[in-house]
Amino acid sequence: MSYFVYQIIAWTIFLIVFPFFLIYSLGGGRQELRQRLGLYHTTPRGPGSQPRIWLHAASVGEVQVARALVQELDRQLPGADIWVSTLTRHGLQVCREQMPDRVRCLFAPLDLAGICSRVMRNIGPDLYVCLETELWPEIIRQAARQQAGPALLNARLSERSLRRYRRWPVAPLILATISRFRVIAAIGEDDARRYRELGAEPATVIICGNAKYDLPPAAGQTWSAPATRADQEVELTSLRSGLGIGPEQPVLVCGSTHHGEEELLLTAWRKLKRNLPGLVWVIAPRHLRRLPEIEAMFRGKNLEYWRLSELSNGADPDGATRPEKQRATVILVDQMGKLAELYAVADYVFCGGSLVRRGGHNLLEAAAHGKPVLFGPHMEDFREDAELLRQGGGGFLVRDEEDLCQRIMAFHTRPAEYHRAAEQAGGIARRLRGSARQQVEIIKQLIGQKVGKNNSRGQ
């Protein structure tokens, strides 16, 4: 597919859906519509102004990477004018809640010719940065034309995405897009290899690790960096109490689960409860749109459960009293951005997308909280992390629900082994920190190169 064909298709779709955009704007979405059309409020920039950096984060996960980079930018480039765009309302909400007030949080513009060129001229970033796997051809093209990089940082690329991008008719468009990046900073060797196979210039592809492991605590999440062990215990006790979890109840958190896994995990939880009667099961589906499907399955199996929002808001649905809430042992996560907090209160962690063929998900987010991580055999997208944790004694492969039960019972009956694995997991995660610093060094170099070019032209 050529760039020209891509734009014809994109504009055709836009013209079809634009009436619905207008109707939506009448219901309170006016600001979103304006920003999608590239109508941002900008201020003129004079000579000698601070560098302007535009970070594009698709949704909540990428916003967390942006948080880590913003923290490091504050150290290395204090006063930098930082803009963060996102595609989703959840992403924008989290961005506004967790970023410093001086950071401009906004909806990303539609990837349309005319809109993107105007946006790039009006905002005038010194550097446009895409995070993880954001390949929008037009905005990247315009950033290159304006000499605003672009750069792809914290870059990930799964085998599934590689196969999709190499297929006709999108392959030529993707190749042209990634060729415009000045730097592609991959999180691991597998990701770097895939970008090179996709056609990226080898000299532009480097490995920097995952900036998410340098993530600062969000507001109200001081448990991530407690002043003392006593402070940590107080924070964790408070979090558990808020969820209706007693001090002696073990907690199994299953994060980022996919279709086909919840029934397997329910079977495992029911079996574990024979020996661990107080075991709390926290289930966090990867996609919230699957909540009705999961709730229907729970009701079909006569399973009593609570939504996380009901507990965290202090609500008592159906007239339930606090003692009844204390006895609730299944919690369904129906809120975005809560998984890290839940990993903190967990005793046992299973990472989803791995008992079914979905490639797995981020293991080190749980390891960073000092939790041994259990995962299934399908970790193709995070193979390096899985192998690193497994060989280091902080991660454990479970083939099926029976294997999961056996591993958790082994931890329960051999606490010294559990604590050793927890220390190993936390140590591995700590050793991987520092990526945000490296990636901000790249940002500084690219901005410096642009300033140097502009100065040489002015002489």
Automatic annotation (TrEMBL):
<dbReference type="GO" id="GO:0043842">
    <property type="term" value="F:Kdo transferase activity"/>
</dbReference>
<feature type="active site" description="Proton acceptor">
    <location>
        <position position="62"/>
    </location>
</feature>
<dbReference type="GO" id="GO:0009245">
    <property type="term" value="P:lipid A biosynthetic process"/>
</dbReference>
<keyword id="KW-0448">Lipopolysaccharide biosynthesis</keyword>
<dbReference type="Pfam" id="PF04413">
    <property type="entry name" value="Glycos_transf_N"/>
</dbReference>
<feature type="transmembrane region" description="Helical">
    <location>
        <begin position="6"/>
        <end position="26"/>
    </location>
</feature>
<keyword id="KW-0808">Transferase</keyword>
<keyword id="KW-0472">Membrane</keyword>
<dbReference type="InterPro" id="IPR007507">
    <property type="entry name" value="Glycos_transf_N"/>
</dbReference>
<feature type="site" description="Transition state stabilizer">
    <location>
        <position position="212"/>
    </location>
</feature>
<comment type="function">
    <text>Involved in lipopolysaccharide (LPS) biosynthesis. Catalyzes the transfer of 3-deoxy-D-manno-octulosonate (Kdo) residue(s) from CMP-Kdo to lipid IV(A), the tetraacyldisaccharide-1,4'-bisphosphate precursor of lipid A.</text>
</comment>
<dbReference type="GO" id="GO:0009244">
    <property type="term" value="P:lipopolysaccharide core region biosynthetic process"/>
</dbReference>
<dbReference type="InterPro" id="IPR039901">
    <property type="entry name" value="Kdotransferase"/>
</dbReference>
<keyword id="KW-0812">Transmembrane</keyword>
<dbReference type="GO" id="GO:0005886">
    <property type="term" value="C:plasma membrane"/>
</dbReference>
<keyword id="KW-1003">Cell membrane</keyword>
<feature type="domain" description="3-deoxy-D-manno-octulosonic-acid transferase N-terminal">
    <location>
        <begin position="32"/>
        <end position="214"/>
    </location>
</feature>
<comment type="pathway">
    <text>Bacterial outer membrane biogenesis; LPS core biosynthesis.</text>
</comment>
<dbReference type="InterPro" id="IPR038107">
    <property type="entry name" value="Glycos_transf_N_sf"/>
</dbReference>
<feature type="site" description="Transition state stabilizer">
    <location>
        <position position="132"/>
    </location>
</feature>
<comment type="similarity">
    <text>Belongs to the glycosyltransferase group 1 family.</text>
</comment>
<keyword id="KW-1133">Transmembrane helix</keyword>
<protein>
    <recommendedName>
        <fullName>3-deoxy-D-manno-octulosonic acid transferase</fullName>
        <ecNumber>2.4.99.12</ecNumber>
    </recommendedName>
</protein>
